[in-house]
Each structure stands twice: as C-alpha cells, then as structure tokens.
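Dear H.,

Thanks for agreeing to be a second pair of eyes. The structure we're designing against is below in token form, covering all 329 positions.
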C-alpha cells in the first residue's frame, strides 16, 4: 500500500510539473512585443499598397524595379513593428515581403523566404534581411540557399558557428548599434570570421537593439542616444547607398574554358582582376549582340563576351564572381 501511494504521489508531482512547464511555455510563446501606436500610424499610410497571401503579406511599389526585400522579424516581436523601417523603401521601387512566423519566432519557419521567391518570378533580385533572431535565421537560409539571395542584411545579428557564410558570393551588410545591450559589439571581429571577406560592417552610433524596430523598450537593452526614426533612416540610407550604388560591375574578356555551370574568363584591359571564375546568379541572362537569348551551351572557349557581375569579388586565384548577364560580342 505504501509503495502504491508513493507511486501515485510521484505521478501527481510529475503531472503538476509538466502542467507548469506547459503553461510556462504557452505563456512565453503567446506573448510578443507589439508595434507602437506611431508604427501602426505609419503602416496605415501604406495600406493601399498592401496585399495578403498564404503565409505572408507584401507591398507593391508604384514603380517596381525588380528588387524584392524579405524581412524576418526579431524574436517575439510582431512583424508589423518593422513597418516604419522597411515601408519607405517602396518609394525606391523595392517590393516588400513579411512572412508569417509561428509565435513570432523565425526559428519555427526559417525557410519562409523560399515560398515567397517561388511565387514571385517577376522579382529578379532578392534581398533578405532580419533583426536579431530573425537575422540569424536569415543567415541560415542563405547558408542553405546561397544562389537565391543577392544580398543579406543583418541587424544586431550574425551567422551561427555551424553555418558560416565565408563562401557566400552575394553582398552582406551587418548593422550593429553602439548602445545595444543584447549584442556585445566588442565581439564583432569574432562574428566577422563567419562572414565573407567582402562583408560590410556598419555601426549605428547611438542606436540600440530595439530601435531597429518600433515596439518600445526591450529588457536589458541600453538607452539609445538617437531617436528610433533617426536609427531606421540611417539603416535605410546605408543599405541603399551600398546596394543601389554598387549594383553591378562590367568587364569584357575571352572565355578560356567552360566547366559545368561556370566560365573561366581572361579579362581585357580590366583593373580589378585579370582572370575570373564566373558563375551565374538566379535569373541571369545569356544574350547575343542583338539581345536574343542564348544558353550556356552556346558559350565556347575563345569567345569574346561582355560580363555584368555583382560587386562581391571572392578572393582566390582566379577570383570568383557572380554574373547577372553575359553578352556574346
């Protein structure tokens, strides 16, 4: 009898502990930081450009440029809190996409960008951005699908040790704030070791962790020395300056060899490099001089070509670059 009672008591204790754990997990997952009233007001101004789809919402610019930005929100932050940061990019012709994240945690849907990309073939250049946990999951996506994303934009975030991006050929912009209480800026050099050599680290002087979004103060964060509006404007201007002003580079050369899906090209009178391995960005075009489409099989050794590439140059010999267009001369 004593042993039976002890067993029942143990089961009751375990059941009570399980119930407490489930309740605590439910409480944690159900609570998220909400957009400020000011953020909701800004978002409302773009309501006429907003469209809902299965698994995401998106905004269409009046004059699209073919560039699409997918944004992964920070952990336990409602996605709408990033409207003030990204919605003004519509004025630059950039299409915007916010995927649905279960419990507002990108870790539960890190491949959300894949569905968006597959459903929008009209977008020829994809940028993927994320804040904090969302940035880490965006880096995970680029690790798994490097050929789909032209630029990765990290805000108070960095790749995981197990998924470094050293060989990624697209642009990487990493924003860190000097008043961030959750991310130690003294460790930036350690995180840079997980990124490509051509990555650009941009410090937001006076900014903090929470002000990459618009959801109010965050526990353990430091007090910012600039306004949230100023911090977000700085981020937008910096990323546009880098990604739009350096969209492509161009050179002429002679194809030395074709190996698989890449070309070895010797350049003609080009200062940056004399020889390069050239692979192809998603949606890259191969054309003749009249603009008619060709296939990779049409490119032969000793053919003169004009090549348009992304600005990221992977250091090796020969260097490695990614083409958006190859035109036979």
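And this is the sequence the design step returned. I haven't edited it by hand at all.
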């Amino acid at each position: 009898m004593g042993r039976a009672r002890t067993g029942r008591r143990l089961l009751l204790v375990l059941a009570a502990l399980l119930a407490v754990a489930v309740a605590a997990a439910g409480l944690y997952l159900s609570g998220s930081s909400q957009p400020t009233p000011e953020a909701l007001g800004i978002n409302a101004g773009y309501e006429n450009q907003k469209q809902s789809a299965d698994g995401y919402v998106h905004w269409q610019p009046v004059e699209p440029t073919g560039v699409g930005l997918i944004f992964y929100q920070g952990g336990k932050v409602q996605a709408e809190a990033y409207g003030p940061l990204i919605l003004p990019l519509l004025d630059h012709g950039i299409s915007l996409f916010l995927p649905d994240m279960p419990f507002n945690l990108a870790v539960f849907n890190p491949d959300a960008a894949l569905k968006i990309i597959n459903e929008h073939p009209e977008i020829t250049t994809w940028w993927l951005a994320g804040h904090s946990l969302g940035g880490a999951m965006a880096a995970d996506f680029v690790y798994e699908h490097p050929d789909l994303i032209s630029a990765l934009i990290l805000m108070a975030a960095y790749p995981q040790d197990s998924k470094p991006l050293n060989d990624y050929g697209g642009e990487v912009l990493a924003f860190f704030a000097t008043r961030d209480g959750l991310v130690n800026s003294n460790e930036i050099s350690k995180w840079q070791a997980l990124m490509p050599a051509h990555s650009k680290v941009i410090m937001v002087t006076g900014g903090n962790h929470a002000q990459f979004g618009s959801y109010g103060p965050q526990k353990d964060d430091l007090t910012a020395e600039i306004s949230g509006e100023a911090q977000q404007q700085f981020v937008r201007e910096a990323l546009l300056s880098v990604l739009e002003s350096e969209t492509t580079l161009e050179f002429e050369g002679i194809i030395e060899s074709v190996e698989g899906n890449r070309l070895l090209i010797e350049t003609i009178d080009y200062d940056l490099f004399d020889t390069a391995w050239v692979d192809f960005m998603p949606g890259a075009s191969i054309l003749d001089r009249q603009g008619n489409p060709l296939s990779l099989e049409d490119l032969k050794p000793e053919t003169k070509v004009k090549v348009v590439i992304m600005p990221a140059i992977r250091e090796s010999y020969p260097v490695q670059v990614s083409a958006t267009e190859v035109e036979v001369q």
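Two observations from my side: Confidence is low (pLDDT under 50) at residues 15-30. The CA atoms of residues 70 and 113 lie 7 Å apart.

Warmly,
E.
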